[in-house]
Design goal:
single chain, 236 residues, Rossmann fold, 40% strand, globular, binds S-adenosylmethionine, 6 helices, alpha/beta, 30% helix
C-alpha cells in the first residue's frame, strides 16, 4: 500500500484549510441525505480527517471510511470515535466485511471539476487501469442498486496566502497540464513553511469517463450542474 499524499505535516493543518472555506460541509451532508434517504449504511472513500463524515453521523447515518493515510485516518478516529468504522486501505486493495447502500467521495479518490467546458472527472489515481480497478472494487461492496455520489468542486487554481487562523497562511500552486494536474500545498507560519505537500491528479475526457463507468457497471442517474454531487447507480 502506498501513502504518497497527506503526510503528517499537511494532515496537521488539513482541518484549518478545509474549515477556512474550501467546502461547505453542512450543505454537502444535507445534499447527501437527499441522495441516500433511507439507505443508512454508507461508506466514504478517502474519508480524510472525517469532517464530512461527522456531519453525516449527526444526520443519523452509519459511516464507514477508508483512507490509505494513517495520519488522516487517526484524526478521523479521534473525531468520530466508536460511532464509525475505519479501514486503513488503499482503494486499489479494497476488501470490506459488509455491503453498503451508498458510497460517496468528497474530494476523496474522485471529484468532478467544474470547468468552462463542463464537469470533468478527476482522480487521485493516475491511470485508467487503476480507476477501473477501484470502481470495480467499489461496486463489489455496494448493494444492488447502491448509489455512488461524487462531489463537484471549483476548478483548482493557484492562490496565495489565504488566512486559515492562528497566524497561518495557506497557498497552493496548480500546474494544469490537461491530462494531469500537479498541485503543491504550503502552510506558512510567519515566514516559515510548516507544511508542504505535492500531489498529482488525473483528468479524464468525457468519453474516457463514460467508458470507466460503463465498464465498471455504473450508470449516471442525476446530473444537476448546480448541485454539489453527481450520482451514479450500480447496475451490475
Ligand atoms: C482531499 S482529502 C478528502 C478528505 C475528506 N473526504 C474531506 O472531504 O475532508 C483526500 C483523501 O483521500 C485519501 N486517498 C487518496 N487516494 C487514496 C487511495 N488510493 N486509497 C485510499 N485513500 C486515498 C487521502 O489520503 C486523503 O485523506
Amino acid at each position: 500500500m502506498k501513502e504518497n499524499i497527506y503526510s503528517s505535516s499537511i494532515s496537521r493543518y488539513y482541518d484549518k484549510i478545509i474549515l477556512a472555506g474550501y467546502y461547505s460541509l453542512k450543505s454537502s451532508a444535507k445534499e447527501l441525505r437527499k441522495i441516500f434517504g433511507e439507505k443508512k449504511n454508507i461508506l466514504e472513500v478517502g474519508i480524510g480527517t472525517g469532517l464530512l463524515a461527522k456531519e453525516m453521523v449527526t444526520l443519523g447515518y452509519h459511516i464507514s471510511g477508508i483512507d490509505f493515510s494513517k495520519n488522516m485516518l487517526n484524526r478521523a478516529k479521534k473525531r468520530l470515535g466508536k460511532k464509525s468504522k475505519f479501514y486503513l486501505q488503499d482503494i486499489l486493495e479494497l476488501t470490506l466485511p459488509e455491503k453498503y447502500g451508498g458510497v460517496y467521495s468528497e474530494g476523496g479518490i474522485w471529484w468532478f471539476s467544474r470547468e468552462k467546458k463542463g464537469l470533468f472527472l478527476q482522480s487521485h489515481l493516475l491511470t485508467k487501469h487503476e480507476n477501473l480497478l477501484a470502481l470495480k472494487k467499489l461496486s463489489k461492496v455496494l448493494e444492488n442498486n447502491g448509489l455512488l455520489a461524487i462531489n463537484i468542486q471549483k476548478k483548482h487554481k493557484t492562490s496565495s496566502d489565504i488566512n486559515i487562523g492562528g497566524n497561518l497562511k495557506y497557498s497552493q500552486k496548480v500546474i494544469d497540464k490537461g491530462k494531469y494536474i500537479n498541485k503543491e500545498y504550503f502552510v506558512k507560519s510567519k515566514k516559515n513553511i510548516v507544511a508542504y505537500q505535492r500531489s498529482k491528479f488525473r483528468r479524464f475526457k468525457k468519453n474516457e469517463e463514460k467508458d470507466l463507468f460503463d465498464k465498471s457497471g455504473f450508470r449516471l442517474i442525476k446530473i444537476n450542474k448546480n448541485k454539489h454531487f453527481i450520482v451514479l447507480k450500480k447496475i451490475k
